[in-house]
UniProtKB/TrEMBL annotation:
Residues 81-90 have a biased composition (Basic and acidic residues). Residues 81-111 are annotated as: Disordered. The keyword Repeat applies. PANTHER family: MORN REPEAT-CONTAINING PROTEIN 1, PHOSPHATIDYLINOSITOL-4-PHOSPHATE 5-KINASE RELATED. It comes from the Eukaryota. This is MORN repeat-containing protein 5. Pfam families: MORN (PF02493). Keywords: Repeat.
Length: 111
């Protein structure tokens, strides 16, 4: 089930797509996940893009939100490369916008 923007009978722009195994909320182009977006799996795992989705495939860095210290990189063929990163948490008196995009990181692959 899709709720979002359409262009010439195609999903295009921001939207939410519900699948049998979870939900994608983010950008679409020509009916495919394309651009920034977050995929929430039915299992409770959440994959937030730091890179982007390209024509329905994961590409770039993705943050595993449930396992806060885990970051995953996908190349254009969706080949996965795991790396551990230290994530800073804001202080209690700091305002945090939970909808803000994370800062861009270099697309470096750890092997």
């Amino acid at each position: 089930v899709y709720d979002g923007k359409w262009k010439m009978e195609c999903k295009d722009g921001k939207g939410i797509m519900k699948y049998h195994n979870g939900e994608y909320q983010g950008e679409f182009s020509k009916n495919k996940m394309h651009g920034k977006g977050t995929y929430s799996y039915a299992s409770g795992d959440i994959l937030k893009s730091i890179g982007e989705w390209k024509e329905g495939k994961k590409f770039g860095f993705f943050e595993d939100v449930v396992r806060v210290s885990k970051q995953v990189y996908y190349d254009i063929d969706e080949v996965r490369s795991d790396s551990k990163v230290k994530r800073e948490t804001p202080s209690d008196d700091e305002d945090t916008d939970i909808n803000a995009s994370p800062p861009r990181r270099s697309k470096r692959r750890n092997v």
